[in-house]
Each structure stands twice: as structure tokens, then as C-alpha cells.
Write a structure and sequence with these properties.
This protein is an alpha+beta fold and about 400 residues long. The chain is built from 12 helices and 13 strands. It folds into 2 domains: about 200 residues, Ribosomal Protein S5, domain 2 (2-Layer Sandwich), CATH 3.30.230; about 180 residues, Alpha-Beta Plaits. Helix 4 packs antiparallel against helix 5. The longest helix is centred in the middle third of the chain and has 18 residues. The structure holds alpha-D-galactopyranose (GLA).
């Protein structure tokens, strides 16, 4: 059975057990993502190059005649009940906040939702840098739109998901994860301009495989470190505006302007900004390298990105450095870096497709022997964005009876 079949079967039977009448349950699926390059650039209006992966958060759901959501998360064996019309102040930063925050943000945007009963499950590892939160938001949005007969608008829902996370979870994230989960393209990474929110598919060459490397180390994003990085970027922009009032975000800054402002920025702010300014050039360069089939160059860009995240932005850690170092030393590897916010979680490697399995096994074995932590390495292919199950193209579902 495919992993999607395993997930949807589990969702259906759990929904039946909890709410009865399984025949009527529908299923919405939204993928996690791996970011190939362009890290901590999205909230600086910059470029990123992620792809949606074949790991999903799924919701089995059925509309209710009232305005309540009853949601059960299999992973936590917890249930929450919430009212669509009366947002309940602060939510604890758990899965509940993503579901409730998404629903309340959709209502605040003027969408007329109806309540649902739902069961949630998924195979995106939690807190691993593979955007399980965005996948949960987009699966929730996909289900709520379907239940209320609202046309699915992936870009709008991605923006509302980002708003929900900022407002209800307290993470001032960028829009990369939600856009990728909503707009993923089979077989391609997405070159995404986070200012215009335009996406361009970048097909992955057949000779290359993308391997996700889970270090087994976890750290929650809601922690202060992510917001603190974002605050340094804003501080840098305020300093740079004194030299050039046109600067709206670090996206508008080049190395020359940053050097000119060096004396007016403290050292930490300068280093954070330097990472963003240089990292922002890499997604476009890597997209060109992938299109040209220049895997050596694509890999070098990934290695440079990791170095910058480690030394300038300081969001790596011993496990991520160890895993990506082992990967880089393997003959099948073109390049490796941390992916997602950092502070633990996953790395990503670009490797020769015909050696991907040997690579994954060799690196896993060495990493486990050195760190004593459990590690999971898997090759992933790029998939489409959030969809209703049984409707792989993401087209409108059949009209309801
Ligand atoms: C998290 C956030 C994204 C992005 C990355 C870092 O995944 O949700 O918006 O900022 O970190 O690139």
C-alpha cells in the first residue's frame, strides 16, 4: 500500500470509530515541503526554492449543520471543540492553535464557513523543519472550503495561513511553507518570489535525487529564536534606510549597500543581514543550475548556504552540522544543507539518483554511530499542492448531492 493509502485508510477508520457513518467522510490532504535553498529569505521579501513532498497531513471530515468544529488529532489522542464565530483569545501553541487559527482567520477574512467534525493525522514528521504546521493549516483550509462550497484559492489560503500562524501561534513566519503546501507542482521545485508571490516550476533533473535527512533532534519554532532573527532583519532595514530610503526589505539590499552601512549596524545585525543578502541570490542561481543540469554548481550553492546559516545566521547546531558534513563527504553527494528554520530538524542533500539508496544507508549508519540519535533518511519526489483525496489534479470536486 502507498503511504497515502495507509494514511487515508487510517483516517477513514478513525473517523468512523469516532463520528460514525464513515461512508460520508471526505478527506483533504496537504503536503509538507523541503526547501532546497533560500533560507530565512521569505520574510525578507526574497526568493526561495522549495518543493512539496509526498508526506501529508490529512483531515477526514464531514460538514456539521452548525458553526462548531470538533477536531480529533490521532497523533496526540486529543480532541478540541471550537466555535467559528467566537475566537477564544489566546490558544496554546499546539496543533489546536493551527486548526482554530486557520478557521478564525478565514472567518475574519469574510468567508462563510460551516462547522465540521474531523479527524487529523499525517506522516510529516513534527517539528522537523518539513512544514508540518503549514500542511495542517492548508489541509484545514482545504476541508473548510469544501465543506462550505467555497472555491479553492491556493494563494489566498496560503496568505491566510501565514496570517493565522502569526496571529494565533505567535510565529512571525514568512509565506514559503503555506504557498508550497498549497501550490506544489508534481516533479518540480518552485522558484518563489515572496514579494510578488509568483511561483515558477523548476523541473528536477532525472539524474538528481533529493534526500531528506532527519537528524532526530527537535526544537519548536514557536521559540523566541525565530522571531529574534526576524527582528534583526527589521533592525538592519531601519539602519539601511538611513542610506537609502527606498529600502523596504533586505530583498532590496546588495552587498555594496550593506558594506556602506557597516559602521551604522552592530556586528550581529550586520552578520544576520549579510546572510540574507547573499542567500537571496542563491535560489535563482540554483534554479538556473538545475535547468542547465549543472548539479555540481547546484550542490556548491547548497554547501555555501549551509555555511552561511551556520556562521552568520547561527541557526544550525551540532546535529545538523554533523549530518550535512557526513553527507558532503559521501561520493554520491553534490551538496547538503539544513532545511527549514534550523535549530534541529532536517537537512537536505542533492545526490546522484542512481546512488541515492546507498547514500541514505551509508550516511544514516555513520550518523547513528556518531550521534547515538535515531535518524531517518528518505528520497523524496515533488508532488502537487493541497487537494481532496481521490482528486489528484486538485480540480473542483463533484457537486454535492
Ligand atoms: C520556517 C518558516 C518559513 C521560513 C523558514 C526559514 O519554515 O515557517 O516561513 O522562514 O522557517 O527559511
Amino acid at each position: 500500500m502507498s503511504s497515502v493509502a495507509v494514511l487515508t485508510t487510517a483516517l477513514e477508520s478513525s473517523f468512523r470509530g469516532r463520528f460514525g457513518g464513515a461512508g460520508e467522510a471526505r478527506i483533504a490532504l496537504a503536503p509538507g515541503r523541503v526547501n532546497l535553498i533560500g533560507e530565512h529569505t521569505d520574510y525578507n521579501d526574497g526568493w526561495v526554492l522549495p518543493m512539496a513532498i509526498e508526506r501529508y497531513v490529512g483531515l477526514a471530515y464531514r460538514p456539521r449543520p452548525d458553526c462548531r468544529i470538533v477536531a480529533h488529532a490521532r497523533a496526540f489522542e486529543e480532541t478540541v471543540e471550537l466555535d467559528l464565530v467566537s475566537p477564544a483569545g489566546d490558544c496554546e501553541a499546539s496543533w489546536k492553535a493551527y486548526v482554530a487559527g486557520m478557521a478564525w482567520t478565514m472567518v475574519a477574512a469574510g468567508l462563510e464557513l460551516t462547522g465540521i467534525d474531523c479527524v487529523i493525522d499525517g506522516d510529516v514528521p513534527l517539528g522537523a523543519g518539513l512544514a508540518s504546521s503549514a500542511a495542517l493549516e492548508m489541509a484545514t483550509a482545504r476541508a473548510l472550503c469544501d465543506a462550505a462550497d467555497i472555491d479553492w484559492s491556493p494563494r489566498r489560503m496560503a496568505r491566510l495561513g501565514q496570517e493565522a500562524e502569526t496571529r494565533w501561534v505567535g510565529v512571525a513566519c514568512g509565506v514559503m511553507d503555506q504557498l508550497t503546501s498549497a501550490c506544489g507542482q508534481p516533479g518540480s521545485a518552485l522558484l518563489l518570489d515572496c514579494r510578488s508571490r509568483r511561483t515558477e516550476p523548476v523541473p528536477l533533473p532525472d539524474e538528481a535525487a533529493v534526500v531528506v535527512m532527519d537528524t532526530g533532534a527537535r526544537r519548536t519554532l514557536a521559540g523566541s529564536a525565530y522571531n529574534e532573527r526576524r527582528a534583526s532583519c527589521q533592525r538592519a532595514v531601519r539602519g539601511l534606510r538611513r542610506l537609502d530610503p527606498e529600502v523596504a526589505a533586505l530583498r532590496d539590499v546588495d552587498r555594496k549597500l550593506l558594506e556602506a552601512a557597516r559602521d551604522s549596524l552592530d556586528d550581529l545585525t550586520f552578520r544576520r543581514a549579510l546572510h540574507v543578502v547573499e542567500e537571496n541570490l542563491r535560489p535563482v542561481a540554483m534554479a538556473a543550475a538545475l535547468r542547465d543540469g549543472d548539479l555540481e554548481l547546484a550542490g556548491r550553492l547548497m554547501n555555501d548556504s549551509h555555511g552561511s546559516l551556520r556562521d552568520l545566521y547561527e541557526v544550525s547546531g551540532p546535529e545538523l552540522d554533523r549530518m550535512t558534513g557526513l553527507a558532503r563527504n559521501h561520493p554520491a553527494c553534490y551538496g547538503a544543507r539544513l532545511t527549514g528554520a534550523g535549530f534541529g530538524g532536517c537537512g537536505v542533500a542533492l545526490v546522484a539518483a542512481d546512488q541515492a539508496e546507498i547514500f541514505a544507508e551509508d550516511v544514516r549508519r555513520s550518523y547513528v554511530a556518531e550521534s547515538g540519535l535515531p535518524a531517518e533518511l528518505f528520497t523524496c519526489r515533488a508532488v502537487g499542492g493541497a487537494r481532496l483525496h481521490g482528486n489528484a489534479l486538485g480540480a473542483a470536486p463533484a457537486p454535492k448531492a
